[in-house]
Amino acid sequence: MDKWLKTELRKLAGPRIEFLAGRMGVRPEKWGIRPMKTKWGSCNPDKGIVWLNSELAKKPERMIDYVIVHELAHLVSPRHDERFTAVLDREMPLWRQTRQELNALPLSEWVD
Q1: CA–CA separation, 108 vs 111, rounded Å?
Q2: Partners of 49 in the β-ladder
Q3: Alpha carbon distance 58, 61 (integer Å)
Q4: Bridge-partner residues for 104, per DSSP?
Q5: Which residues, in sequence order, are bridge partners of residue 52?
Q6: How many CA atoms lie within 13 A of 18 on its CB side?
Q7: Which of 19, 54, 61, 107 could form a disulfide with 5 if both were Cys (CB 3.0 to 4.6 A apart)?
Q8: 3 state DSSP class of 52
Q9: pTM score of the predicted model
Q10: Does an H or E element contain 33, and which?
C-alpha cells in the first residue's frame, strides 16, 4: 500500500513542486516521499531537501499544495517567522484554514 501511495503522490506532487518552487523563486536540491508518524512534511533548508508524508496521497490537492508551499517556504526562511508567514500569505492566502482542516485529519492510519 505504501508503494502505491508514494507512486500516486509522486505523480501529483512532482509537477506541483516544480510549479510552486518556480513561482516562489526557490529550488529544492532534492525532494522525496516517505511515511511519517508525526508530520505532514519536513524540510532541511541547509541541504535543500523536502520530504512529504506518503499519507498526503489520501488528502485533497489543496492540502498537498499547502504542505508543499509550507516546506518550500522554509527555503526562504528556516523558521516560522514573519518572513516565512509572509511567503505563505502571498502564495496561499487561505493557508491557515487549510492547515486547520489538514491537522484535524489523522496523520496516519498506522496502529502500533
Answers
A1: 9
A2: 30, 44
A3: 9
A4: none
A5: 33, 41
A6: 5
A7: 54
A8: strand
A9: 0.93
A10: strand 30-34
Beta strands at 49-53 and 41-44: parallel, antiparallel or unpaired: antiparallel
Burial class (CB in 10 A: 0-12, 13-18, 19+), 78: middle
Cβ-Cβ contacts under 8 Å for 80 (sequence gap 6 or more): none
C-alpha cell of 64? 498537498
State the Cα–Cα distance between residues 30 and 27, nearest whole angstrom.
Answer: 9
Output the tens digit of pLDDT for each of the chain's 112 residues. 778 889 999 999 999 999 999 999 999 999 999 999 899 999 999 999 999 999 999 999 999 999 999 999 999 999 999 999 999 999 999 999 999 999 998 876 544 4
